[in-house]
Amino acid sequence: MTVTAIIVAAGRGTRAGGDRPKQYQPLMGRAVLARTIAALAGHPRIGALVAVLHPQDDAMFAEAMAGLSIPVTVVPGGATRDASVQAGLAAVADGTDRVLIHDGARPLVSVALIDRVIDALADTPGAAPALPVTDALWRGAGGRVAAPHPRDGLYRAQTPQGFRLEAIRAAHAAHPGGAADDVEVALAAGLDVAIVEGDEDNLKITHPGDFARAARVLREREEMDIRTGNGFDVHAFCEGDGVILCGVKVPHDKALKGHSDADVGMHAVTDALYGALADGDIGQHFPPSDPQWKGAASDIFLKHAVGRVAARGYRIANADVTLICERPKIGPVAAAMRAEMAALMGIEIDRMSVKATTSEQLGFTGREEGIAALATVTLIRT
Ligand code: MG
Fold first, then answer.
1. What is the CA(275)–ligand 1 centre distance, in A?
2. CA 118-121-126 angle, 5° bins
3. Which of 175, 180, 187, 256 has the fewest CB atoms inside 10 Å of its own CB, making it the most exposed?
4. Which residue ranges form the domains of the chain, and what is each CATH number?
């Protein structure tokens, strides 16, 4: 099944104020229309995009889409919304099964909402998102309430409105014009249109205050930014009487060799933190060639990474480290390691896991030549 999205953006949008049509005004640094197009282009089931623009807006459109490298077929709109949609429908490649017709001023459309529309088209020739009206309704005249109006069965319509391509092409060709949306056109042609659940966030930017509301939704979405990082480290054994693992000195008949204190577990967690931030690794921040880190306690590295996490606006949701060695036995000291690591990272102990495994006497860890550690961390934007 092939799906093309038609973005209708030929209107002048004067109610939103500003010195240019609302779809070209910036919403958190990017034009509304560019955000709308990017939202549709990012949906895995949408294969092609057609943008219907006012013939005078080409330069603003090019400016809005600069740096986005999204392939879009641009067609000039007509004098009315119906004419613009028909121009868009004419530009859809033959052989396309479904079209989604979307307002250029609805930049917050979600993947889940688009899925609901596309899924419903399996059963009906049309499908559109809507929300039931919950406010009481009145009819008014001259600044006075004339009469209450029943709200039962009333919905607020949204877009994208989805249709089977040939059905909506035929419906538009037969329609006299003046429809408020494409569902109205489809109904006039006798098409069955399913209502799917809309989304309060899928707002249509219409008035000046809508920009602030849309920006709030975008900021909330960014706050959901969750990141994962992994880290891996190995240190070889040398002569000695103990090792430092996850900040805890563990008696052993060997030590670990390294430029710093060779705390392989702490290094793995530190690298996982840098990894989640896409911020390099320990070697970049603390070059082994720099003598000042010789014999350094590894908590310097860990605290640095924890600081970078906070500076970038994240908190550590959890960390999990696995030590791979035959000896020393980790079980008896794991609780102390968790407590030490949690304290250094400023997190509760139930967010810090330290566990261990052997490698069944296989490989360098099995031959007790050294210890390996791997770590995973999760960061959440605060
Ligand atoms: Mg290391």
1. 15
2. 110
3. 180
4. 3-223 (3.90.550.10), 226-381 (3.30.1330.50)
Looking up tokens 């986005």 gives 68
Residue 283 Cα, ligand 1 centroid: separation in angstroms? 9
- Closest alpha carbon to 113 in 100, 99, 97, 126: 100
Half-sphere exposure of 230 (CA within 13 A, CB side): 4
Ligand 1 centroid to residue 182 C-alpha, Å? 62
227 alpha carbon to ligand 1 midpoint, in Å? 23
Report the separation in Å between the CA atom of 321 and the middle of ligand 1, taken as the mean of its atom positions: 14
Compute, in angstroms, the gap from residue 267 CA to the centroid of ligand 1: 5
E-strand stretches of the chain: 3-9, 26-27, 30-31, 48-53, 73-76, 98-103, 126-132, 137-141, 144-149, 155-157, 161-164, 193-197, 226-239, 242-245, 248-251, 254-256, 314-324, 352-357, 370-381
Using an 8 Å Cβ cutoff, are 250 and 328 in contact? yes
Residues of the chain below pLDDT 70: 13-14, 16
Amino acid identity of residue 264, one-letter, is: V
Q: Whole-angstrom Cα distance, residue 44 to residue 40?
A: 9
CA of 248 to the centre of ligand 1 (A): 15
CA of 306 to the centre of ligand 1 (A): 17
What global pTM score does this model have? 0.65
98-140 pLDDT, tens per residue? 999 999 999 999 989 999 999 999 999 999 999 999 999 999 9
User: What is the distance in A from the centroid of ligand 1 to the CA of 256?
Assistant: 10
